[in-house]
Amino acid sequence: MAIVLIDANNFYAACEQVFDPSLVERPLVILSNNDGCVIARNAKARQLGVLMGQPYFKIRATLERLDVAVRSSNYALYGDMSQRLMTLLKIHCEEIEVYSIDEAFGEINRPPNKNLFPWARQLRANIYQSLGLPISIGIGINKGQAKLANHLAKTITNYAGIFDLENASNKEAFFESIAIEDVWGIGKKLAHWCRIKGIHNARQLRDMPSSELKAKCGVVGIRLQKELQGYTCVPLSVYPSAKQETCVSRSFSKPITKIEELRQAIATYVVRAGEKLRKQNQYAGSITVFTRTSNYTKNFYSQSATRQLYLHSNDTAVLLRVSLDLVERIFCPYHKLIKAGVIMQNLTRNDHLQLHLLKQQKPQKYLQRERLMSVIDHLNQLYGNGTIQWAACGVSRHWEMRRQNLSPAATTRLKDIPIVNA
After folding, report:
1. In terms of Cα–Cα distance, which of 10, 4, 154 is closest to 78?
2. C-alpha angle with apex 190: 185 to 194, nearest 5 degrees?
3. Residue 58: which residues within 8 A CB-CB, separation 6 or more?
């Protein structure tokens, strides 16, 4: 049995290129919410020296001069492409653990000759043919080694996106070639501490005294070291654990100062949070709303308010009623608010839901509300977000995120489906 890490290369940029072939040969960067800073690049943009996190307004002229394509982040497209990718991976692996939007660990039986390259090559071809996404596959004996193998698959071009660390002829040399910063679980501070101790690569981390590592980072460090040594300490998590909180927050395209605008923004985020709760089959027990000004404002202002619900709920009408009452408590006039959000807390699942002990309940009423929410979600999913909208969200929302370079939602909105003229 082998553990594989399957990673979509430059995922956000690759999704944009799938539906706009003119971007394939051009350097491309993806911007964060509100077109604030660079959050993803393709290989050509990386070669031009575009760095992650650079503010867009500072490099706009340079990007135009270098003919770099710019796209606003399109999470509807990325999320749907990720779901399609994971669905295909489930067909080709015994089990998979969705690790992030573009990464998944998988479990696969080794054939009698121990050679997994034919399987990996076939998987790469199938994913590219079905979705147009290039992927890298790292193969190891556990998750830690699969991560190292995936790093080698992406950085050593001779291996064409596939690397089997378990069957490598010179494993020690490959361990030494991986910088300590590139080892899974090693953050900046821990990497700095390792380098001070003379630990510069994965092999040195694997062979260093366990007592020193345990004193610095406890059982997490020991678990990481054991994985490098070939033990399995981090099992595959096929069933994701239930979320403890669900948060929806956004920055505004321009500062707002009116309570009506803040109410619209909070209502919009609550509607989205309610959809997420119902999709997760969870109910919120309390709600927190918050807002703040820019960190660089002279009179910085930040405020939040929390209220516990009478009964757990994922009914948007109930969530809106509680949240909009809290807006009065967090709003302060004359402050230029730049961001707001809502956090659904104390979540519970349907099978653990408790009704009120003393007050008489009407199960039929709850069933009707659940059906109503289900119909609204279905219509919005079928015909696009906002097909059925809540009046509290407003009609003209000037505060909404700035996304001036947004690509079409080619897989989730009917009118954005690409048209091919043959």
Report:
1. 10
2. 110
3. none
Please count the CA atoms within 13 angstroms of the CA of 263 that sit on its side-chain side: 15
- Those residues whose C-beta lies under 8 Å from the C-beta of residue 122, and which sit 6 or more positions away, are none
Q: How many helices (H) and strands (E) does the chain have?
A: 13, 13
| pTM (predicted TM-score) | 0.82
Q: Is the Cβ–Cβ distance between 329 and 275 less than 8 Å?
A: no
User: From CA 269, how far away is CA 257, in angstroms rounded?
Assistant: 18
Give the three-class secondary structure for 23: helix
The 10 Å Cβ neighbour count of residue 12 is 24
Written in H, E and C, the secondary structure of 59-93 is HHHHHHHCCCEEEECCHHHHHHHHHHHHHHHHHHC
Tokens 């099978």, residue? 351
Tokens 């308010």 sit on residue: 305
Structural contact between residues 72 and 403, judged by C-beta atoms closer than 8 angstroms: yes
- Whole-angstrom CA distances from 185 to 145, 162, 209, 220, 339 are 12, 22, 18, 9, 31
pLDDT at site 360: 67
Question: What spatial distance separates the first Cα and last Cα of the chain, rounded to whole Å?
Answer: 46
Across the chain, mean pLDDT equals 90
Per-residue pLDDT tens over the stretch 270-298: 999 999 999 999 999 999 999 999 888 88
Q: What is the 3-state secondary structure (H, E, C) of 287-331?
A: EEEEEEECCCCCCCCEEEEEEEEEEEECCHHHHHHHHHHHHHHHC
Give pLDDT tens digits for 376-387: 999 988 887 788
- How many degrees, rounded to 5, is the angle at CA 381 between CA 379 and CA 384? 90
Q: What is the DSSP letter of 37?
A: B
pLDDT in tens, 98-154: 999 999 999 999 999 889 999 999 999 999 999 999 999 999 999 999 999 999 999
Question: Looking at residues 319-324, what average pLDDT do you find?
Answer: 96
Query: For residue 419, which phi and psi values (nearest 5 degrees)?
Result: -110, 125
DSSP 179: B
- 184: nearest Cα among 3, 47, 39: 3
Residues, the chain: 422
pLDDT tens digits for range 174-194 = 999 999 999 998 888 999 999
Q: Which positions ≥6 away from 215 have C-beta within 8 Å?
A: none
